[in-house]
Amino acid sequence: MARTRIGSFNVENMFDRPRAMNNADWDEGRPVLAAHARFNELAQLTVYDTDTKAEMLDLLEVMGLLRSDTSRFAILRKVRGRLLVRHRDGETTLVAAGRSDWVGWVELVTERVTELATTHTAMVVRDVGADVLGVLEAESRPLLELFSRAALAEVGSSPYDEALLIDGNDDRGIDVGLMCRDGHGVTYIRTHIFDADAEGRIFSRDCAEYHLLVPGGQRLVVLVNHLKSKGYGSPGDPVGAVRRARQAARVAEIYEGLRAEGIEHVAVVGDLNDWAGGGSLDALLEDTDLTDISEHPDFEWNGRRGTWGSGNEKDKIDYVLLSPALFALATGGGVYRKGVYRGPRTRAAWEVYDTLTRDVDQASDHAAIYADIEWP
Fold first, then answer.
1. Residue whose C-alpha is closest to residue 332's, from 283, 299, 295
2. Backbone CA torsion sign across 308, 310, 316, 322
3. Pairing mode of beta strands 299-300, 330-336
4. How do residues 234-279 score in pLDDT, each as one tens digit?
5. CA–CA separation, 3 and 324 (whole Å)
6. What 8-state DSSP symbol labels residue 109?
7. Could you tell me the domains of the chain?
8. Which of the four, 80, 84, 111, 113, has the lowest number of CB atoms within 10 Å?
């Protein structure tokens, strides 16, 4: 019988990572990330009214860009036109009247992750051994390919036959992709980066749709997702929750559309950024017939019932959701935690690699999750 392991892993960048997303700088980086996202949103407006200009200046100050085009965490890129005038008395005036007056943006400064962090990421991918792996927060397709060819080889693993990624809507270089091997091949790809509703673009990254043929000729569709984060939003995450709910509803529509086409074997994988009781994922978790692999009687939690951070139940934010026909073929699954480090007492909660002794060298603060399928 043919077998397929379907996995999901938020790698938190394999080689380079925005400095503001560095765990060691998180208290400083959190407001910078929020300011970066908001500034680039406002910069697209046709007209900058008085309130918009004031907010944009405040955001530049948060990012350390009010008096300089560069700071520790961010860079103000100006291609054409004029956005600001920096006066000798220390004042800064926003002079652009709208988007047509200048071309530019703010980008985040990146830095290399440690060599050991990349090695631990490769070790997790090697040890999980997924035939079909949804990858979150990968920088680019060439770097995903490089990771597959070089980093996996360094830890004694064979590369994936295919490493696929389409640039999404997030300008931080944290895209979603798919790697597959051992007779699992992609036959068709569809992006949903342009999907929109009355509020605008839906997906923060993408809901990447991959159609595969698996050994034995079965058809499998995998939807890879990284929904809106609540990592640096306002208290209670009301804005993030609303965006995530829109995204979950759209993923549910895409899933139902595939089922209506007669496709029986569908998996929705990724970092959905909320736990099952959080409410924002109800359209996907409650209103469809998808089942989380963690509900399988032979699922291995490996110490905790969450997948992120400390692994608490409300930190179960990574998923492999299966359609009824696919869940019926599941023989089990699990959470793989050896690349996650939460301080000196981590080893009492779950086993980690012997070489993992500090946060900066962890593969990710997300554990990998996987499902095992046995085809008839």
1. 299
2. positive
3. parallel
4. 445 667 899 999 999 999 999 999 999 999 999 999 999 999 999 9
5. 17
6. -
7. 3-15+112-374 (3.60.10.10), 23-110 (no CATH)
8. 80
Q: Residue 18 contacts by C-beta under 8 Å, 6 or more apart in sequence?
A: 29, 33, 73, 108, 109, 110, 172, 173
pLDDT in tens, 208-244: 999 999 998 999 999 999 999 875 544 456 678 999 9
Of the candidates 265, 226, 256, the one whose C-alpha atom is nearest the C-alpha of residue 243 is 226
CA distances from 99 to 79, 80, 106, 160 (A): 12, 11, 14, 43
Q: What is the mean pLDDT of residues 290-298?
A: 98
Phi-psi sector, 7: left (phi>0), alpha (psi -120 to 50), beta = beta
What distances in angstroms separate CA 188 from CA 201, 208, 334, one per listed residue?
23, 11, 28
Residue with tokens 């690699």: 353
